[in-house]
Amino acid sequence: MTAAATETALFLRACQGETTPRPPVWMMRQAGRYLPEYRAVRAKADFLTMCRTPDLATEVTLQPVDLLGVDAAIIFSDILVIPEAMGLPLTVDEGVGPRFGKVVRTEAELAALQDPLADGKLEYVLTAIRQTRAELDGRVPLLGFAGAPWTLAAYMIEGQGTKNFSVAKRLLAEEPARAQRLLDLLGEAVGRYLVAQVEAGAQAVQLFDSWAGALAPEDYLRFALPPLAHAARVAQASGVPVIVFAPGAGWALPEIKAATGADVIGVDWHTRARDARQAVGGQQALQGNLDPTWLYGPPAQVRARTHEMIRAFQGGPHIANLGHGILPDTPVAGARAFIDAVKEWTA
Amino acid sequence: MTAAATETALFLRACQGETTPRPPVWMMRQAGRYLPEYRAVRAKADFLTMCRTPDLATEVTLQPVDLLGVDAAIIFSDILVIPEAMGLPLTVDEGVGPRFGKVVRTEAELAALQDPLADGKLEYVLTAIRQTRAELDGRVPLLGFAGAPWTLAAYMIEGQGTKNFSVAKRLLAEEPARAQRLLDLLGEAVGRYLVAQVEAGAQAVQLFDSWAGALAPEDYLRFALPPLAHAARVAQASGVPVIVFAPGAGWALPEIKAATGADVIGVDWHTRARDARQAVGGQQALQGNLDPTWLYGPPAQVRARTHEMIRAFQGGPHIANLGHGILPDTPVAGARAFIDAVKEWTA
Q1: What's the pLDDT tens digit per position in A143-184?
Q2: The domain containing residue A222 runs over which residues?
Q3: Of residues A34, A38, A155, A220, which has the active-site annotation?
Q4: Which is catalytic among the residues A13, A22, A33, A222?
Q5: B297 to chain A: which residues are within 8 Å by CB?
Q6: Contact partners, residue B120, CB within 8 Å, separation at least 6
Q7: CATH number, position B188
Q8: DSSP conformation letters of B314-345
Q9: A-chain residues within 8 Å CB-CB of B270?
Q10: What is the total count of domains within chain B?
């Protein structure tokens, strides 16, 4: 086994519940705007073109591996490619954020949704995965990902980002059965999409329930968790580790563990590592959770806080990560200090 | 004692730690845009003019008392009047939100801040309190309020609302001592401002740490909690109950209780009532926490959820409220169903 292959094993070993000598490390949104090399690609192509062009998606997926030495790559894509492939035209304007040309609120709009996996509509993602996997050549494992059903449903109902989720939550209150059908549909679609990613070469997959925090606990348990669990279990049956990350629902870690059976549970930066460990026990692999804004600080401080974070997660398997996506204005030196601090850690 | 005076007592009795036969009830932002009568006033004057005109502030403060029968009034004002009185020109544009003409980031900008209580700059708030108190004539108690130091500091550093608090949190990371001085200054100013409100007639006061959730736990405990506790204790020394509400920091309820000694601790809608009760014990008065979007639902559902919420808070003193400010597009019927459901409650 080469040194590189040992490193590859580190991430997957932690996913499988092993307490590794040091935690493997990667960063959510690590192929992103904080990297000048990413911005150079982005200057030539808009965000969605990058997603849809396997050469470009592969290029930026590899950047943090080559430049920062992370222990896992995650395919460059977007959670909203699923609703788009279901028939909602997507635009992403700088400064405005993603926006759909149609919404899903009525029975008719729900009935009009298409199977996102039919007609090769998402083939560009699978091609990018195959291509990235080949170019990685075993250096580090490749993750696939998808948005969780509730997060996708909220976008599809609202049609865009929102502060209060008034439209989506009004639908849950007024038409719970219809909302449930949309969520079930998405649970199935997301699960199958993750399986397709695994078949294309993804070695682990992460479900992002980015808007978990928009729902009160009772509603999260009733509406969001069952279809999330379904998607996770469908993906898991394909034989790779599944990571579930539900930022803003730190209270739900035991329920997420029980319902999804996730190999790894993500912890957001609002949740104390010790509380998370206590909530799920020492057998459960956890991933997280440095506050991304801490990377603004001087490197010595980043290093100290990273080591503090690792110590706080001790007592069970841990994958070091941020507790949210890295912010676009993060200094590269801060990101590098974080990665290096994890890699130099010895228990 | 008249029936009205008994009702008055209900809110203050709960504040003082008594488990009342039914919880008293009011709603954060109850004098707000969901009321047609509020919008009628707002059509004639912009938001800041309403704050600065005691007749108008009094009028809208009384609306939910007269129209919905809440058990407490809260003076119509804004948390940003303090930074404005410290020398930061404030504008509030519909759809854009509040914005300061200056920010506080450098030593010079910090040194230039003025005493917000000098020269009667906030006299308009105190006049509104005196006038509202007189017009209430003992029907229900009147609350004063202020923004907590961290929330105000974040606005002053950023200059406006923000998604990631990148500028404010970068300052905490890079210039912690300067940030600390700003927070200490605000802790003292906010405490004195609340005392002035009590002297004008406020019978209880609430501290809103609206952006508590923007800080990771370690940072909240280090930067935000000490000046919040200082302000709370200064206010409490004036002899009225103090309510502390730090949405997004549900994990911190025990620490907030210990540090601030608050008579009442607010609970946001992300936090389960039973978890909150367990975290602080049966002696501690709690306030909250219905998800405001639940008021979108049919009245029978609002009623059921309100009763469920009251049951979940049992085991100690409770003031029924929403877990966040009421949303502008809330149907009045939903707000009314909430208030009525609490008032009809019998244990």
Answers
A1: 999 999 999 999 999 999 888 899 999 999 999 999 999 999
A2: 3-343
A3: A155
A4: A33
A5: 173-174
A6: none
A7: 3.20.20.210
A8: -SS-EEEEESSPPPTT--HHHHHHHHHHHHT-
A9: 213, 216-217, 248, 251
A10: 1
